């Protein structure tokens, strides 16, 4: 039985605006374990470090980033408005290739979200205490990624104003129900479920910190808002106890989602009849890829955040290294999946299947395939080297490559399989239009805009949780080593 | 199925303009006095009054300010005034039929009128389907002796021309609109002057198959001292007629009986494409290749050509030779047969040994099939045609496969007379030129010179539907009606006479040619009167079945045609002495293997250019190249490499001082020494199609600014030995370096997968089951794909207790002509999406014809495979639709429910046949006029929804309703989807698979039956039948 780590939730956040620990009691480093938080922080310093980010006026860097993100979002809004006003034809799709950028983006963003859930739920259950520094941001990333992902199934339809017909609800049309055999309906359930649980999980984790903010703030409006959302948090042992039970349960609930959501998304393809889609390997392959891409995205975001927000003490090189190691592991799984796919295609004796995979690697879209392979199989190998793992710039660049590679992986699966399927007479290509690119950019704009707003209005690091790991790596008796 | 009764009266009225102007059909021919609007209004009013009086006392609730009586009065008055306003309008601009409903016509019900197709000169019999007073579909008339139920794509599309908003609204005088009265007044004065001064009057037309029109013209011209009627055809067959004048003493075009021929050798005659009577020929060709009996009946067809034609793509043995070699082969064939038959014919040919062997084998084959063989030649060259006549005579084919006793009148143009006329025009000796159904400025060589010359002629009168290139130079332009809104007669072949009857009041202020001529002769008679008078005099007398002319006329109207006594009996003896003399005085085309040769051929859709304003035809993929909205310069791959051009690169073609620049198309199966260009493009006014597709940010116009649809290559046509020649030697080809985007509906041409590893061979996909006749004769299931027994975990969840619809397509019969594609377009309201959308692979046609090339052991083959929704029993599209917008019905139809569709396109992705079509935009259905052609029985789809073949469910429902009304079970053949009905080769059969006696069930039991992608286990309801080529066993193509 997993005993919830009571230590994970350290002393109450109720009066932390006062310096709680005298300076002479600062902990000493242990030689056995590396500390998770650098700088020998006290509880008060932690609270101050994180909350003061929200008190200060936004920096020029924030404004600059926000301006860029919002502008790109603007392009996205314009593209989607034009799309809805004109028709799906403004994308480069055709009779043969019915999905390309739209569903690629959808699968990509869903995958990105997975790292957040993995960090917050699975790593929590596995008592990976280093997660505390990144879990809040990673969960926020999950929610924003799911929002981005969820947009695409809606806007990719020919008549988005009827997209709600995918929801089974009692209606006056008979009632006419949805087709429960369709993976798109399963998708709808999976994503709705995923979004709801992720949101609740994130919100529950936020409650103690919201209470801290409530207690610190002097603005009446802020106080009212924080009071409302902190649900009357009082920081008593009983509250903490119940809170921790709830958190544990939610972590348990969220854990299967890490596997189920991308499995269901992969069924969109796996249950179809199209060679290149119709493979049983897709669910594990998608999940591994999702975690892989998710961690790459967490890295990208965290490396920017720790620099811009001066959180180097909280998100340390140790954290970065840990995430790099996960990327090596999941990257290996992805590489194995690529090879298995090729082998199965060869071994199946199915001529269509065989051709599809040869065509991916050697056909007119071979460059997308090799972009995918280089980014997802070769790039993670750099992380075997500690020098690279601890070089922030290198990690940042490599993480971007993995993000690109994983987008291409989805593109290769979705698009190249469709371009050349059964009847050669109906083979066709795909060329993206400006609107395809605009919509893809717009989704990144939306993601970063939401993330920047999050960084301004909510604590980016779980204060309560971090306090619990301050003693990690510290000599138990507080003696200097 | 057809409502033929009472057509005469109804149709007769239509032509009566006085009634037509009211926009409603009144039946004063029935003898009843027409009901006037006034009297009708009075009746209605009285009715109201009586009704009011009875209930006046009970009317307690009166709305403020107006009582019920006043309301009804006002309402009645408004309605009546609306009616009056509608009726009093001078002319019908927007035809709103049935403001006052004729009693015989039920709104929404289809009425069928037998008439004659005017898409080309072949004169196929058609049934025009009219709903609410508008013709909306043309179908082949199954009883017609020539076309026997088939109708080609061009014929079907000719319907759209009726609703062309660019047709002339009024007669023109010097380019300005005028009235008929004014025009007539001035014309009579002009004609009087000419008559007095003895000026030269020339009447230039294309071949007129209408006896009345020919008679009217000759009567009209009789009034002048120096007058002549010249007929010419832009795609000329004159050499065939002239050769027969030499050999058989009569200038005639024989009728070819392909059904009687066991060995067919064609020298570049595209008789399945558009060689003068393609529907008739396709029917005959098909009849000779039914594979019935033992040994299986299948003619042998050898085809010499340099380009790849539709006919060549169907040939059993296709000899891809240079034009010079083809000519030599023809000579050698004549030489070899002359030796065998001992006929006095001295020709000598030099051939390469490879071709020599094949030609002598053909000569053997032909000789063995004496009297049951047929040699034809598509070259408009007298020398060549003389040889063909000699060959057919030596083979004893005259009177058997070549019928000159009942010749064809479909094309009778005389190039020699045309040449004389052109000389006269250029020298300025013509005083008055009348041009009808012809566009010489566009389609003759030296069009520019001709245009200048026409301007110098004092009086040029053009009879045309629009201001075409020739009408542009005319002083008077007389708008002529579309064939579907006028009376006209036809005699497409000796002894076959037919009527075209109007199916709609004229939409324009047009006047038939014969009415105009009559008016200028001072006769105020309608076209109907003129035709009836002519028929009573010349046609009625040639038949014995009916004693009363009215009865004969009515019967002809009802059936659409009549067979009468043939007029001439020609001798069948070939005059070899005359032949030898004529051979000596004529020359073969001047082409040599050392140069590039330009081959001009009529486009399969535009023909000679007459359909250039028809967007349906522009968007119909060429059956061979699959290119839409353009004509191209086709060259072989080797030639393209030599010239350094790729697909779409603009090529400059120069010869004899003429030049043209057009996009290259790399055509497999073409000879290296030729470049082939289709005629019929680059017509004036086709820039109207610039914005035919959807307009959005990255949309490209269908026609580039300042350009036209395609390029006109007619200026390369030249006279050789007094005949229009379409072969141009000594051509120089040069890459211009410019790129051009072509739009194609098929991008990959092979059944084989591309060699991505660079291997020599690659997998050939199991799409087209084909075998050779030799193999088939031994084993009826020869060529069949190996089938693994299929296990399915899917329950048989459909019981199909009643009907279960299915279709079988015989690949052996299908020629790839694309008539079905056009039939579907017209029947199912398929929008025209423009070149850019096709380029983006978003064409909307529900049925397409997949055309595959295959090169195996040096044999180049082409296969055509119609592909449409396969209505799978285990349909992959049905399971994936999240909203149940595509479902299976109890009769096996895969149905698309447009208003439920949200447009996820998952179904289309999951369709292994890729036959689903998505409405990427709100596609326009043409302008206001074009919308009149829409079939009211078929929903016009909105943007964002998926669509696909429905097996013409509207026809299934109609047939069921009719059967139920008549209290009978549905018979096999009662339901004919549009594609099935139109197919000239009857390659498609549709019916109930649950009925063991239906044609479909019978064909499903045939060993040739197979289903495409059967191994996927989707259980398609559409099956195919093996393509059997009349080849030796050894050339059979192995399957992958």
Quick rundown:
The complex is a heterodimer of chains A (481) and B (1040). Chain A is 64% helix and 0% strand.
Describe the structure.
The complex is a heterodimer of chains A (481) and B (1040). Chain A is mainly alpha-helical and 481 residues long. Chain A has helices at residues 43-55, 60-86, 101-125, 135-155, 183-216, 220-229, 237-270, 282-308, 317-348, 351-362, 366-378, 386-389, 392-419, 434-457, 463-468. The two termini of chain A are 35 Å apart. Residues 1-24 of chain A have low confidence and may be disordered. With 1040 residues, chain B is of the alpha/beta class. In chain B, strand 32 (848-856) and strand 33 form a beta hairpin. The longest helix of chain B is centred in the first third of the chain and has 21 residues, at 68-88. Classes of the chains: A mainly alpha (481), B alpha/beta (1040). At the A-B interface, helix 5 and helix 10 of A face strand 32, helix 26, helix 27 and strand 36 of B.
Lay out the secondary structure.
The complex is a heterodimer of chains A (481) and B (1040).
Chain A lengths: L42 H13 L4 H27 L14 H25 L9 H21 L27 H34 L3 H10 L7 H34 L11 H27 L8 H32 L2 H12 L3 H13 L7 H4 L2 H28 L14 H24 L5 H6 L13
Chain B lengths: L6 H8 L2 H4 L16 H19 L12 H21 L21 E7 L8 E7 L2 E7 L12 H10 L9 E2 L2 E2 L2 H18 L2 E6 L5 H12 L3 E6 L6 H11 L4 E4 L6 E5 L10 H10 L12 E6 L4 H5 L2 E4 L2 H19 L11 H16 L4 E5 L4 H13 L7 E7 L6 H13 L4 E5 L3 H4 L3 H10 L2 E6 L11 E4 L8 E6 L2 E5 L12 H8 L6 H12 L10 H11 L1 E3 L12 H10 L10 E7 L12 H4 L8 E2 L4 E3 L1 H7 L5 E7 L2 E9 L7 E6 L38 E3 L2 E3 L1 E13 L3 E2 L25 E3 H6 L26 E6 L8 H9 L7 H5 L8 E9 L2 E9 L8 H5 L5 E3 L5 E3 L9 H4 L7 E2 L27 E2 L5 H13 L12 H5 L5 E5 L6 H7 L3 E2 L11 E4 L1 E3 L11
